[in-house]
Specification:
The strands form 2 sheets. Strands 1-3-2 form a 3-stranded antiparallel beta sheet, with no helix packed on it. The N and C termini lie far apart (31 Å). The chain is globular, with a radius of gyration of 14 Å. The chain has 137 residues and is an alpha+beta fold. The relative contact order is 0.26. The protein is built from 4 helices and 5 strands. α1 runs parallel beside α4. This is Putative gamma-glutamylcyclotransferase. It comes from Actinomadura parmotrematis.
Length: 137
């Protein structure tokens, strides 16, 4: 797997699947479509509210395929995800391929709960992204 392979967009499985986060980071919400990646799991991470994508032969990661990102937006998202993640192009359902951020560190033995994040953490998380975005400029 390489991040240089052709892809149909960015496979977002965690906080980037939320329009509020994309709006804060990019100043817009690109087109998104539901997507799944077999052989992967969206795991909770120790001590943080965001998840990581980890290999699991029996898993299926739910997310969205974000299309229409330009080179500057891709660089911004790469910087935002930082060195804790590797980038690779993964096969997705429907024959699509998505560039994805793969977690490199330790993960919890349970899946991340996107609905719980949306209900309890999303607003505070978006507010925490604002200073990073301003500093990036």
């Amino acid at each position: 797997m390489s991040d240089e392979e052709p892809s149909d967009g960015l496979f977002a499985y965690g906080t980037l699947r939320f329009p509020e986060v994309l709006e804060m980071l990019l100043g817009r919400v690109p087109e998104m479509a539901p997507a799944r990646a077999a052989g992967w799991r969206v795991r909770a991470l120790p001590g943080v509210v965001y998840p990581g994508l980890v290999a699991d032969p029996s898993g299926v990661a739910e997310g969205v395929l974000i299309s229409g990102l330009d080179a500057a937006e891709t660089r911004l998202l790469d910087a935002y995800e930082d060195a804790e993640y590797d980038v690779a192009v993964l096969p997705l359902d429907g024959g699509r391929r998505g560039r994805a951020y793969l977690w490199r560190g330790a993960a919890e033995p349970f899946d991340w709960d996107a609905a719980r994040f949306a209900e309890r953490e999303l607003r505070r998380f978006v507010d925490s992204v604002r200073p990073w975005r301003l500093a990036f400029e």
